[in-house]
Amino acid sequence: MLTCGREEFRSIAVSLLPRVSVVLESWQRGHRLRSEYIRNRAVLTQDGKDRYHEKDLRMRVNVSGCTLELLQGDIVEQSVDAIVNAANSELAGGAGVDGAIHVAGGPAIMDDTNAKYADGCPTGSAVESVAGLLSANHVFHAVGPVWRGGKEGEPELLSSAYRKCLQLAVDHECSSIAFPAISAGVYSYPLGLAANVALKTCIDFQKWHKQPREVRFILFSEGVFGAFARSLETLVEMK
Ligand code: AR6
To answer: Ligand 1: distance of its center to the CA of 183 in Å?
Structure first.
């Protein structure tokens, strides 16, 4: 009889783990939506549970010839035409994405917003600034709503913040844009609901305007990625 120890079993199991790729396809009014969900380089942790390397979590949908993609990662590491900041209406900087963007991008970003937008930016809108040291041409500072139970116009305000960024991308001739999960952190918007609003708004915009060519959602943790991936799968299946 063949036997192998626990460690040996673990290393054999790791080498046999398959690359998983699920492709969903659907059509609506001639628009082809195709999503690819790729999980590869799976590794087993010490306790034997499955774990996925951050950079391997990725899901992509084709919307009327444009791409909408979900990636797990840090938004300040993206190379795109425009990076979206989850800002506050004073454009005063803060924690989360806002803090990371100002630290990585340097003082030029705050200098530019101070000079151009003394009155800040209303909730549900967005404004453009330089991108400083980031690998982008612009930062769009979007102000999402604070979650107050959902009856104070939060979905409309969140959708409007995304739409304004997409319109800024068109106005500034950006073909690629990276979004964080606006309002889903300090502003406490429930993750699944925030994901639905974000994805539906971007898909509708790309369908109508056929741009921006590439929309990326950069999701900080596996949990946030999972919520967006579930929401995107549902939207693709419904189309
Ligand atoms: N890259 C990508 N996503 C990130 C990063 C990063 N570097 N850092 C955090 N996230 P939040 P909000 C995720 O709080 O809810 C600030 O103080 C985070 O895990 O940044 O719109 C502003 O100044 C969450 O999923 O934005 C405002 O006052 C998502 O980004 C307020 O927070 C959004 O979390 C805005 O709150």
So the answer is: 7
